[in-house]
Every structure is written in structure tokens, then in C-alpha cells.
Amino acid sequence: MKPKPSKPGAKKKILLVDDDPQILEVFAALLEEAGYEVEQAEHALAAVAAIVRAPPDLILADIRMPIVDGLGLVRELKAHADSRQIPVIAVTGYDNPETREAALKAGYDDYITKPIDPRRFPRQIARILRRPKSKQIKTRVL
Known about the structure:
This protein is α/β, with parallel strands linked by helices. The protein has helices spanning 21-33, 44-53, 70-79, 97-106, 121-130; strands at 13-17, 37-41, 58-61, 88-92, 110-113. Strands 2-1-3-4-5 form a 5-stranded parallel sheet, with helices on both faces.
């Protein structure tokens, strides 16, 4: 996996990974309205292909998906030097300590629960993107 780096000064690119097309549509609309470039993938394998083509600045990935779940996706991404620096945020309907702990242990950099607050969501994403790479935290819950 050898992704190409993002161009300096370009719009921040976010990859949404979720098997629910309605979720993808809503999240994409909110993020595009906030000025982000958004790409969508309906499963982990499509996400990997998108990352190899053009790596995003941030990945928002559901945990429960068909084929390969989000935990498998994030483990794969964090295992490769070319993709481990991309922050991956869990966006999931599972709001329990066990799932949160498993997600962070697998390599997710943060955790957002669905349903999201549409007014707050773009601000949450902006804060995550402003974090220095060295300050990515594993215990913060949005």
C-alpha cells in the first residue's frame, strides 16, 4: 500500500466508510457544506482502494460493516507505514465501554457515537484535523 501524499494548500479530504448509504449521504452533505472534499466507501475494501489512489487527511469509519469490519480496516491501516499516520475516527451506533475500548485498542484515534449532532459534527471534525499528529489521543471521547 503506497498512497500518494495530499497536496499542500488543498481542501482537507475526508474518507467516509459506512455500509449505510443514507449515513454516507448525510455525513457527506454536512462535511461538503463545511468545505471539505469528501469521498465515500461502502465497505473496508473499497476504502483501502480509495486510500491507495489518493490518501485522505482523515478517515471516518463505522465499526460494524460487511466483508471486513472497521476494526479490521483500522488494524490494516495502522500496520502500514504509508497509512498509519492518517487519523481514523470511529463513527458508530455502539455507545458502550467495551466497543469503545476495542475500537481504540484496534487503532482508531477517536470515537464519535451516532446519532451525530449535525450542528456540532463539522466542528468536531475541524478540531480533530487541527490536532498535531503527535497529539492524536487514544482516550478522548467526542
